[in-house]
């Protein structure tokens, strides 16, 4: 049972409406709120006031992760729940942001219940807004949770420049969001997100129990040619780095058709060209290139084919191609105990539910390696993602908050954590 | 006979050495001196002082063309000679810059001779440094001479933004190079440039008599797709603008092989991608795409094939492709009278010479439609162009100045212009 007309539902929807105004793109339902942008900074200030008005203490760590803490059991570890409020350029208002707001309201509700009942939980409650999950302004993605879990050194993260040379450190200082908080003792973690796909909508599922992340191999290629006049230089004399990159982009798409339908996703979303002048053959191109699959065999085979293409392009187009950065993860399960807990909550609430995989990475991908973790989805209309037109229906948003509240309540009581 | 050890030769080489220091890229022989950059501004100030020290009056027009005027015959029209001092990013020090300095020294020499002989010429002398020939920072190329010859409205030129949104007007004001000079009465025009090809070097030719410009068809394509998550969106659901652009880049190269070797040059040197994020399918790409040939039949056939590719990519990759700007010119002869004059001067000086075509456009391409024009080349080692390693030997630089001096002397006396 969702509680669509309850005061709790109305409170969530009211805060959600304000939340979606930060970085709103006029005339669309979407937002532009990249990490440590002015809009991100303003939203964080508002979110701080919201959390404080519910009795939470707000802290920021050295990489700008924003925590709202409610200590109910002095000295006890925390149930942590959250997602990220940063967005891609001209993106949807739900991606990440919904998860943070759902987490805040789940904690508000559980705290109210505990106050009303006088019951003593086992763990305290914390909401998190992870810094730079999107990775559009600063690479890599999932930066805040990667630093929090020790997978990325803090110093490397802070020194990362955006395309204009502004570092994470300076960008966080500019919005006053680099803090000194450290050492949160996390007992368990829960995250909810809109699905970035259409399977739940097609199957009529309200709550997705995320059981695994697709594997990914991500490369940053540097293609090196030689600057030349793009009119007068003989074609045979050219070493065109942009042509080399274009061959890789086309090969990425064609590779998909060598596998079963749906087995492999490939993408090149970012390219940077030097000197990028209309009458100069490009001498250097940086190209981001991704392979994703739920099967590690497919990923291995696809990787081998990409390297064959690299060899061929180097030879035929006389360019040099190097892998200058690489970021990979295996097909990666979420713990069964968390899935079972989420299933029980859905059943109790009468919400349709099923196991789903996530193709996209989430901050929970980092957290699940450290603590018991629950990852949840609500449906997204037509699976539109990283687009101003991203949309999730109100009843699904509310069902997700209800469900996450049930999960947080159990986690606060000690579920998934041995005594 | 070149005059390699003469005081005149030494004077040229001394000024040339200073000239090449503006915007010099440390540790290379090349320069970075894009239109209206700080380096361009500093060089213009120095060039003003050089011209004034030789008795010239310096004026700037409303689009930043810089003129050095020497009035020898009050009220008479001017022989104009020059080229451009702006460069591509990380480019050679000879392209354009050599032509301006050779022109200045040719005028200095002719003026000295006239003063020494007491002879009265028919026309006055003027040197020009055309604004933004390269078109790398502000499009289109040949901007200054296009405005001067009425082919491009001044207002359009001044409103043109660079990639950071700075307009030509503001950029010229920032370096103090937007002036009020107008109405130069030009009798004839001469320009010298390094060849941007290797044919003269191969054939052992010192002076190239430029008899025609290759035809060109240049397009700015806008490829429109739809933003989507580049990991989770089903491949079949994607409308990837960067993939569409990559197909065009590859097709441009493959098109060359459908024609006789050397008959067609194609290029894509500039691409701009939105949102250009590693995890977003691109929704919009701007791509510059050039076809060049000495044959208008080849250009027509190549254009038809490009449009077939555009249709196919639109259909198969479900993107929209529009031509948002187009800039074309036909294979285009230089006047025979100018070629004959230049041949006579080369013969008189004992310099090897031959007719050559230019693939690249030059400011003389604009001027030759207005006044009698002579266009000259000196060789370039390996034809390397728009590259820090561009190089022309000293003896060829000096031979070019000697030759241009002979041409300017005859033009000042009234050659090519009916009484």
TrEMBL record, chains A, B:
Record keywords: Hydrolase included? yes
Does this entry carry the keyword Hydrolase? Answer: yes
What Pfam families does the record point to?
A: Peptidase_M20 (PF01546)
Record keywords, A-Z: Hydrolase
Q: Which family does it belong to?
A: Belongs to the peptidase M20 family.
- SUPFAM superfamilies assigned to the protein according to its UniProt record, in alphabetical order: Bacterial exopeptidase dimerisation domain, Zn-dependent exopeptidases
The name under which this protein is listed is Zn-dependent hydrolase
Lineage at the top is: Bacteria, Bacillati, Actinomycetota, Actinomycetes, Micrococcales
Listed InterPro entries: Amidase_Cbmase, Bact_exopeptidase_dim_dom, Peptidase_M20
GO molecular function terms noted in the UniProt entry: hydrolase activity
């Amino acid at each position: 049972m969702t509680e669509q007309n309850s005061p709790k539902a109305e409170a969530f929807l009211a805060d959600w409406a304000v939340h979606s105004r930060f970085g709103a793109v006029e005339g669309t339902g979407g937002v532009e709120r990249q990490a440590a942008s002015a809009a991100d900074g303003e939203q964080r200030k508002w979110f701080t006031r919201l959390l404080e008005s519910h009795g939470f203490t707000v802290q920021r760590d050295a990489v700008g992760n924003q925590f709202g803490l409610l200590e109910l059991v002095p000295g006890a570890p925390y149930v942590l729940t959250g997602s990220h409020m940063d967005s891609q350029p001209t993106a949807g208002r739900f991606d990440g942001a919904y998860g943070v707001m759902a987490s805040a309201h789940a904690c508000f509700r559980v705290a109210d219940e505990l106050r009303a009942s006088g019951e003593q939980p086992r763990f305290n409650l914390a909401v998190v807004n992870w810094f730079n999950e999107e990775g559009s302004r600063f690479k890599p993605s999932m930066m805040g949770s990667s630093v929090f879990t020790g997978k990325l050194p803090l110093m490397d993260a802070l020194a990362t420049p955006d395309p204009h040379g502004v570092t994470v450190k300076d960008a966080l200082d500019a919005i006053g969001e680099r803090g000194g908080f450290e050492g949160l003792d996390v007992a368990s973690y829960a995250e909810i997100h809109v699905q970035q796909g259409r399977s739940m909508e097609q199957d009529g599922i309200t709550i997705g129990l995320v059981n695994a992340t697709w594997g990914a191999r991500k490369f940053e290629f540097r293609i090196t040619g030689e600057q030349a006049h793009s009119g007068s230089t003989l074609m045979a004399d050219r070493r065109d780095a942009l042509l080399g990159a274009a061959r890789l982009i086309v090969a990425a798409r064609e590779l998909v058709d060598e596998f079963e339908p749906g087995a492999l996703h490939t993408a090149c979303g970012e390219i940077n060209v030097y000197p990028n002048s209309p009458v100069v053959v490009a001498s250097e191109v940086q190209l981001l290139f991704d392979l994703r699959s739920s099967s590690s065999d497919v990923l291995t085979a696809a990787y081998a084919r990409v390297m064959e293409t690299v060899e061929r392009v180097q030879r035929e187009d006389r360019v040099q191609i190097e892998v200058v950065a690489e970021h990979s993860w295996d097909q990666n399960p979420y713990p069964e105990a968390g899935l079972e807990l989420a299933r029980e909550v859905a059943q109790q609430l009468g919400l349709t539910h099923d196991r789903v995989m996530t193709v996209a990475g989430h901050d929970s991908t980092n957290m699940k390696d450290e603590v018991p973790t629950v990852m949840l989805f609500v449906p997204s209309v037509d699976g539109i993602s990283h687009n101003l037109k991203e949309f999730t229906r109100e009843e699904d948003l509310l069902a997700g908050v209800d469900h996450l509240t049930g999960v947080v309540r159990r986690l606060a009581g000690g579920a998934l954590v041995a005594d």
